[in-house]
Amino acid sequence: QKLLEGDFIVQPTKDCVAKTLKRLEEKIQGRVLNHLLYLMRVADKVVQRRIALALAHLCSPEHQRKIFIDNNGLELLLELLESSGIKQQEDGSMALYKMASKAVTISPVDQAPPSPTPQVYLGEQYVNNSTLSDVTFLVEGKRFYAHRICLLASSDAFRAMFDGGYREKDAKDIEIPNIQWNVFELMMRYIYTGSVNVNLDIAHDLLKAADQYLLEGLKRLCEYAIAQDISVDNVMLMYELSEAYNAMSLRHSCILFILEQFDRLSSKPWYPRLVQRIVPEIREYFEKIEVLNRASHQYLAIVLLTFVMQLPRSVKFKVSVIVTPILTFDLSPLLFCSSCFSLYYSTFLFTVNTRKHSDAIGVLFTIIDNREAQLCQFIVQI
């Protein structure tokens, strides 16, 4: 903690500290990590918190679940964040932010949303076009021409409107009383094209409309635009906005900002109340990241297994040797569910053919040192 907080001036000292911290990171594994986890369970509360703080800064992302979920490290950091001492709050805030930064690098929960999955997009030329239009919206006294087939494919809200028991089902003109024309036009442009540029001056109103009509892709675009404007002065309002419209991505951005900017926010009179509100969200945020990480690993394993099964026998063998040491322990049972990996085990472990056995060992030890790079190349080829 003293090394992290030190304000060093001379460059050689800075380099020495950086190398020391790097070496400490490399040591946090195996027996050292297990011993620290044991102390984090049985030592007094002060020692437990110090260990949790250190591990938040030094542990690798793949150990986060073991430390902070399985062994209660996250709760220790949340206790610091909720404590009455300013220094303890700061330590907890910085540790949680460091954890989140590491986790997001391997599981980007809240980065800019990708292009949506294609559905039924009529195209730009049909936005507010009377050609083949079978429904008209009245917005601020003006007519907006639309097409039911496009709206039905866009969200559950429009499906309920046109395919349910509502009066709009057979109506030719539908009044929209609570949305401005420019906001409605932009929302419809997204529905017709699958993409739209969201400016900050309209993002708040567009977020409200997207939430009302259950357009999750448009919501993410709005949340991303709004998140770029989070500041010390408006973070409280932004957080309340995220709660009002169930904007989880924006809420996560607010939480990360609150943790990162402790020095500038802790003096605000509303800060203690805000911390109490975000603690459950922080807990849920890290649990969500862990679920996404595990799901992505499982998805990668399934993709590899499915792809490798289609390869020639000789290629199956070589690829299985690359993949086997990389998969995590909880995914190893997948290896036994595929004929391509059973080929590896039968050849490597049980064959009586000396030449094949020798070749298998040679391939294994040749690949073992650079297996991650080879796997990356293999995935790119897929």
From TrEMBL:
Q: Which domain of life is it from?
A: Eukaryota
- SUPFAM superfamilies listed in its UniProt record: ARM repeat, POZ domain
Pathway linked to the protein: Protein modification; protein ubiquitination
Task: Provide the BTB domain boundaries.
Answer: 133-200
Concerning Pfam families, the annotation shows:
BTB (PF00651)
- What PANTHER family does its record include? ARM REPEAT PROTEIN INTERACTING WITH ABF2 (PTHR46710)
Name of the protein in its database record: BTB domain-containing protein
Native organism: Opuntia streptacantha
